[in-house]
Amino acid sequence: MKILVTGGCGFIGSNFIRHIFRTYPDYKIINLDALTYAGNSANLKDIEDSPQYAFVKGKIENSGIVKDLMHGIDCVVHFAAESHVDRSIVDAQPFLITNVVGTHSMLQAAKNASIKRFIHISTDEVYGALGEEGKFTENTPLMPNSPYAASKASGDLLVRAYHETFGFPAIIVRPSNNYGPYQFPEKLIPLMITNLFDNKPVPVYGEGKNVRDWLLVEDNCRAIDIILHKGKVGEAYNIGGNSERRNIEIVKKVLALLGKDETSITFVKDRPGHDYRYALDTSKIKLELGWSPSVDIETGLKKTVDWYRNNEWWWRPLKERLSSESKGFWTK
Ligand SMILES: NC(=O)c1ccc[n+]([C@@H]2O[C@H](COP(=O)([O-])OP(=O)(O)OC[C@H]3O[C@@H](n4cnc5c(N)ncnc54)[C@H](O)[C@@H]3O)[C@@H](O)[C@H]2O)c1
């Protein structure tokens, strides 16, 4: 099989490419990535010389490049996105260009090339926010709250429209919060771990009461693999880690793993429009495709801390780049 992956130099995309080569050594992958601030060719250092792999630097919204790359492709797995909610609050424009216009450019080229399957990587954030009770199913109406979530929901609607209008063979996947190796250290878990290695405080929004479901990236990649091969065209699938926790619980677990106490926590002004709780009903993927997560957050966090401990060569340069930014994210 020959797969076109977009955003393969990002966190989940690079883990997915590694997963595919481990599982199907004869597959071929072309990785189209613009190498934005979040894209990092070091994420795929171990496979960049593989004859099964080719990297193309380019933007998904560039319809000329995308059209050329579709020749001979069987399936597309579309990860490329602007992915950080805080950045979308500062400036939503790049989110619209990549997540909406870029997704449309991918759909158009893939349709014209008659590819067999298009896997669109969405997010649980498209559903909006929950109170203390309930879970999102794949039929929950889309009610995005942040500019990031709105741009992702717009992508989902275009994918749906292509399926309904043209019979385009697309599947939407909606994973919960991923964590694990190669996650850019502006996101909560790697930010905390790398700050604590440097004896710096860990910033926590509000009182840290927001609830997220946490999914180890390798489990997410395994789920996307199963959906790619066995998922039903025209459907959406939630992917969750069965690990709903308050942010403050996650922070305390990381502190404990690193032998630190709570004096390392700094509470910062809450993010505007911060969704209170996300939780996914994942019975569809479990019942239809037989997937469930292999680890809970406690086991996954321990593995993740160990990975960051052993891979300072990877995160240190990113951390230095982030600290020279002046946009006032958590890292400041
Ligand atoms: N990280 C999570 O917890 C999470 C959870 C649910 C869904 N998702 C979704 O999964 C996907 C991957 O997320 P991630 O965390 O790996 O993101 P990331 O920010 O780590 O990686 C995004 C990648 O896309 C590339 N990219 C950005 N704009 C591009 C463009 N215009 N053209 C080509 N490449 C471009 C970047 O260079 C980068 O390599 C995204 O679609 C995101 O919305 C992420």
Structure report:
By secondary structure, the chain is an alpha/beta fold. The protein has 2 domains: 2-178 and 213-239, Rossmann fold, CATH 3.40.50.720; 183-211 and 243-270 and 295-323, UDP-galactose 4-epimerase, domain 1 (Alpha-Beta Complex). It contains 11 helices and 12 strands. The strands form 3 sheets. It has a 7-stranded parallel β-sheet with strand order 3-2-1-4-5-6-10, sandwiched between helices. It has a 3-stranded mixed β-sheet with strand order 7-9-11. A two-stranded parallel ribbon has the order 8-12. β5 (117-121), α5 (147-166) and β6 (170-175) form a beta-alpha-beta unit. α6 runs parallel beside α8. 46% of the residues are buried. Residues 6-7, 9-13, 33-36, 38-39, 59-61, 79-83, 98, 102, 121, 123, 152, 175, 177-178, 184 line the site of nicotinamide-adenine-dinucleotide. The site of nicotinamide-adenine-dinucleotide (NAD) has 30 residues, from α1, α4 and β7.
CATH first level of the largest domain: Alpha Beta
Q: How much helix is in the residues? A: 40-55%
- Kindly estimate the percentage of residues that lie in beta strands according to DSSP: 15-25%
Q: Rough shape?
A: globular
Distance between the termini: 44 Å
- How does the helix and strand content classify structurally? alpha/beta
CATH-assigned fold name of the largest domain? Rossmann fold
Number of domains: 2
